[in-house]
Amino acid sequence: MSDADDCELPADRTRGSNFGWSLGMVLRRWHDYVEEALKDLPHGSRGYHILAVVVHEDVPTQGALASRLVIDRSVLTYVIDDLENAGLIERRLDPRDRRARRIVATDNGRTVLADAERRVAHAEDHVLGGLPEPERATFREFAERAAEAIQAAAPGTDPCAAVTDVLSPPDQPGR
Q1: Which residue has the higher pLDDT, 170 or 130?
Q2: DSSP for the chain?
Q3: What mean pLDDT is predicted for residues 133-157?
């Protein structure tokens, strides 16, 4: 995507000595490619994650969705508004609690998600293109297991804020 693609290891760094640098490089590249792949989806990867949970998981209410994704409810509200305005999801009264709202994917939302999932998979394959396919699968599995363990140990960790912290330059907000 940029000249940074040709980035070499710093001269004073040996392979395996800087785990954080490695994760940061993978995350930055993932973010660049996935945001480009999802540029037509409201709120890009954040909208994608919300739509994916709504389609693939049984999250009973908007509040449960905020808890599942560890997204501030006020932020979630405006993303859901935009996904709803795009015809991808709808809010329905929860039959068990009329004060609560269930977030349900529309047929169009399911179709859009299926296409977005293909684009994200392609972007992720590009990001991990330097690895043979079996190693890509292993990397994804280990990353997912590590993330699940981290969330279990610190369930209040906002993954979107964590990504922003990593991706923000040191002199920018979010760091």
Answers
A1: 130
A2: --GGGGPPPPTT--TTS-HHHHHHHHHHHHHHHHHHHTTTSTTHHHHHHHHHHHHHS---SHHHHHHHHT--HHHHHHHHHHHHHTTSEEEEEETTEEEEEEEEE-HHHHHHHHHHHHHHHHHHHHHTTTS-HHHHHHHHHHHHHHHHHHHHH-TT--HHHHHHHHHS-TTSTT-
A3: 86
Place of tokens 């490619």: 33
Task: Please report which confidence band the pLDDT of residue 165 belongs to, taking 50, 70 and 90 as the band edges.
Answer: low
Paired with 90 in beta bridges are: 104
> Can you tell me the distance from the alpha carbon of 35 to that of 120, in angstroms, rounded to the nearest whole number?
9
Confidence at residue 3, expressed as pLDDT on a 0 to 100 scale: 46
Give CA–CA dist 172/17, Å, rounded. Answer: 27
- Model's pTM, two decimal places? 0.76
Reference 163, options 55, 7, 49, 12; nearest CA is 49
Percent of the chain with pLDDT over 70: 78
